[in-house]
Amino acid sequence: MTKLKIAILLAGILGAALVPTAAQAKDLKIWDQLQGTNPTGYVLLMRHALAPGIGDPENFQVNDCSTQRNLNQEGRQDAREIGQWLVRREVKIFRVESSRWCRAKETAQLLDIGRVRLNKNLDSLFQDSDPAKDPQTANIKKRIFDHRKIKGLLVMVGHSVNIQALTGISLDSGEGVLIRATSQGKIKVVGYSPAP
Predict the structure, then answer these.
(1) pLDDT attached to residue 57
(2) Distance between CA 57 and CA 117 in Å, rounded?
């Protein structure tokens, strides 16, 4: 990271911290409420950290990271910082689940907030013509609904297209959306995690 980029980033962080926008303040308010708790039913859907490019190469193989688009150094550092931010919130973590794609799996591991369990339903739906109707999406919705009465934050690291199919929200690298399932089986967005 260049000195200029670091200076711009620090200025942005300091500016946001000193004068948060109404949207930023609202997004972080839920984390203030959850701080130090063992919350029931909350799920953090997080997009993997920065892995330059789009999609995967034609020779993609799920068990071979050399055939995939992977995190760069900035993405790795962002994942560590997001994990540190979550640790400072002191929210009890129930479980960390990840797509089998290397960029998501590495993000989840670098968060360093718990053992990472691979969940094939979080695998990228980038090539799918209708991700909202894919069985993987239905399985993740069920997983979120089943977590409704369970204590501890469920952290699920995956891909933008999957998260958009679930919530209608498109996330940048390393961003997350905090959700809960309603008793009617709907997914309710309750906040966001700050971008790295």
Answers:
(1) 86
(2) 25
